[in-house]
């Protein structure tokens, strides 16, 4: 069985595509709820959430429906 390695970033991270995906998937630990929400908002704003596997789109839609994230037009 393969090991999972988690990245824990103790300093504020630049929210780029890689970091947002890592936080959403959980292999990068979010420092706060705000950072977790920011990661999902980044994935929604850039449209990445809709191009990755279905889990991302479903979770992004749930984040929007629950009011944590918005669709910026």
In short:
By secondary structure, the chain is mainly α. The chain contains three helices and two strands.
Describe the protein:
The longest helix is centred in the middle third of the chain and has 14 residues, at 33-46. This protein has helices at residues 17-25, 33-46, 54-65; strands at residues 7-8, 28-29. The protein is built from 3 helices and 2 strands, in the order βαβαα. By secondary structure, the chain is mainly alpha-helical. It has a two-stranded parallel sheet with strand order 1-2. The relative contact order is 0.15.
How much helix is in the residues?
40-55%
Order of helices and strands: EHEHH
How large, in whole angstroms, is the Cα Rg? 12 Å
What is the SS-derived class? Answer: mainly alpha
| Bulk shape | globular
Distance N terminus to C terminus?
A: 44 Å
Q: What spatial order of strands do you see in the largest sheet?
A: 1-2
The parts where pLDDT drops under 50 for at least 5 residues are 4-11
Average pLDDT for all residues? 87
Largest sheet, in brief, is:
2 strands, parallel
Strand content: 5-15%
Number of helices: 3
Strands, total number? 2
């Amino acid at each position: 069985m393969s090991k999972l390695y988690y990245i824990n970033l103790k300093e504020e991270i630049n929210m780029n595509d890689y970091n947002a995906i890592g936080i959403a998937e959980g292999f990068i630990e979010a420092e706060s709820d705000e950072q977790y929400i920011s990661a999902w908002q980044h994935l929604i704003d850039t449209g990445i959430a809709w191009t990755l596997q279905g889990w991302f789109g479903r979770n992004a839609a749930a984040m929007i429906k629950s009011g944590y994230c918005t669709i910026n037009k």
